[in-house]
Write a structure and sequence with these properties.
Strand content: 25-35%
CATH class: Alpha Beta
Order of helices and strands: HEHEHEEHEHEHHE
Shape: globular
Radius of gyration: 16 Å
Number of strands: 7
Largest sheet: 7 strands, mixed
CATH architecture: 3-Layer(aba) Sandwich
CATH superfamily: Vaccinia Virus protein VP39
Helix content: 25-40%
């Protein structure tokens, strides 16, 4: 699916495509309430809207929200766009499906960037700053029987994501995997990844994983 993209907005890549595949397996249709956290260009939100769902999309970037609006409008779809961090803009609301392609790339800096393109991928030394927050908070916005789908790199700890979701009362499992060569950001940090023991010497591929968490009915 071709998406219009403003400069500085995260482009739909292999992680987005893997998450889209998982989304399509969830039986989304009319009446499904979907939340897309960190919508970027809106690829996930637009797909859910085209399937008939009622969609809310959140991002910290005004430019991303504008891009998502354009992509939805080009397809004749409406998306409820909210600016803010993670679940802050939707407190008190409940959803049947939450999808997110959050920042998950490990980086040396403890503090996350507040501006610039790196906001879309930098996630602290373990790559888990935003993943941990999502896993903690997302059970509170799921309807009974609701599902969350999170995509991340295996470098960021898949078992940790499953364990965090289960601590929140969700049943967690891995529902998608794919391998891809390092992109520019990952290549630029490969030596640091090696020093941290996140990859082996000379390794230049990563495994992408979709983790699914389901709330009991």
């Amino acid at each position: 699916m071709h998406m219009v993209r403003a400069p500085g907005v995260y482009a739909a890549q292999g992680d987005t495509l893997l998450l889209l595949s998982a989304l399509r397996q969830e039986g989304v249709g009319p009446g499904t309430r979907v939340l897309d956290i960190g919508t970027g260009s809106g690829a996930l939100a637009v797909t859910a809207a085209r399937l008939g769902a009622s969609v809310t999309a959140v991002d910290v970037s005004r430019r991303a929200l504008g891009t998502a609006w354009v992509n939805a409008a080009l397809r004749g779809r409406f998306i409820d766009l909210r600016r803010g961090s993670l679940l802050d803009p939707v407190r008190g609301r409940r959803f049947d499906l939450v999808v997110s392609n959050p920042p998950y790339v490990p980086c040396p800096a403890e503090r996350l960037p507040e501006h610039g393109a790196a906001r879309a991928w930098d996630a602290g030394p373990q790559g888990r700053v935003l993943l941990d927050q999502l896993c903690q908070d997302v059970p509170g916005v799921l309807n009974p029987g609701g599902v969350v789908l999170l995509v991340q790199s295996a470098l960021s700890g898949v078992a940790a994501t499953c364990a965090a979701l289960e601590r929140g009362g969700l049943q967690a499992s891995v529902v998608g995997r794919s391998r891809q060569p390092f992109g520019p950001v990952m290549r630029s940090r490969a030596a640091w990844f090696e020093r941290q023991g996140l990859i082996g010497a000379g390794e230049r591929e990563e495994e992408l994983v979709v983790v699914r968490g389901e709330r009991a009915r």
